[in-house]
Design brief:
By secondary structure, the chain is mostly helical. The chain is 74% helix and 0% strand.
């Protein structure tokens, strides 16, 4: 029983439950369509979230298998159950197959379009792991594509129109996180970076700093324009969404602080869950935005 228990524990660790926070992007269309209190839609969105958690965990296991040799040379990733040898490759492969098959199958049962989005997510990550992760800049766009597919999936499963602003802000924010991840890897691994991830030889700290600066400014400006656009004001019956901008600014600047002063940025989910000021900013933004979206028209 002890051996089975350890195997299940290492399998769960490899499924990266902390990274499930990324799948909250699926709930963004529900939130911004002011549909949280339409409980049948909330139930469908919640189920979609659970299925994507299962799907993303299967993808993480698949990636760990494909990246096994590179991860064994990484100062942090080598401690994971699979690269360290605590979890067998055959066990990880079996777990990945079960998770992927269940998540894709149940996604199609939930909604045909959502199933296609889930399948597209799987295929994108498969192609990324095999080929596109070696192509400079395109690799970061693939990471951004994962977030965009989550948002699209969240919209189709509750059958609401996708906001163009939501897609734009998601693309820019995910590019910001993607370039930050590459900078963290390059700074952490130094001259050995290319041995872990070949594409890192095509990047430089200067280039990544410039890219982060560009997408940071674009992200903040896009969100600010969204809050004051005539479309947004007409949709929610309030112009008070502008009050959420300080929380967005603080959250972005806090993340930049973690990147440049704390040498973090490699895992945004971990940063969100472990950095209390950043978590507080996100929670405060959600509460204030929620009050404005759902009750602002009554003021």
């Amino acid at each position: 029983m002890g051996s089975i228990g350890n195997t299940l524990k290492y399998l769960l660790i490899s499924a990266r439950p902390k990274d499930w926070v990324k799948n909250l992007f699926i709930l963004a269309p529900l939130f911004f369509s002011v549909s949280v209190f339409r409980y049948h839609l909330t139930a469908r969105a919640a189920l979609a979230f659970v299925l994507f958690c299962l799907l993303s965990s299967g993808v993480y296991l698949m990636n760990d298998i494909l990246d096994l040799q590179e991860d064994q040379r990484h100062p942090q990733k080598r401690l994971r159950p699979l690269p360290s040898g605590r979890l067998k490759v055959s066990t990880a492969a079996s777990g990945a197959v079960v998770m992927l098959a269940l998540s894709i199958g149940l996604s199609f049962l939930l909604d045909l379009e959502f199933g296609l989005i889930a399948l597209a997510y799987l295929l994108l990550n498969l192609v990324y792991s095999r080929y596109l992760k070696k192509v400079v800049i395109v690799d970061v766009f693939c990471l951004a594509g994962d977030f965009v597919l989550r948002v699209i999936g969240g919209a189709v499963v509750i059958d609401v129109e996708m906001s163009r602003w939501l897609i734009i802000c998601t693309v820019l924010l995910s590019l910001f996180l993607g370039f930050s991840k590459r900078r963290h890897e390059l700074a952490l691994l130094g001259s050995d970076a290319a041995n872990h991830r070949r594409v890192l030889s095509e990047y430089s700290i200067l280039f990544l700093d410039m890219s982060i600066g560009i997408v940071t400014a674009a992200t903040v400006m896009s969100y600010a324009l969204y809050t004051i656009s005539e479309e947004t004001i007409a949709k929610f019956g309030s112009d008070r969404l502008i009050l959420t901008i300080p929380f967005v600014l603080y959250g972005v600047f806090r993340y930049l602080y973690l990147i440049y002063r704390k040498s973090e940025g490699g895992n945004p989910a971990q940063s969100l869950l472990t950095d209390l000021p950043l978590l507080a900013a996100v929670v405060a933004w959600g509460l204030v935005a929620g009050v404005i979206l759902y009750f602002g028209h009554t003021w």
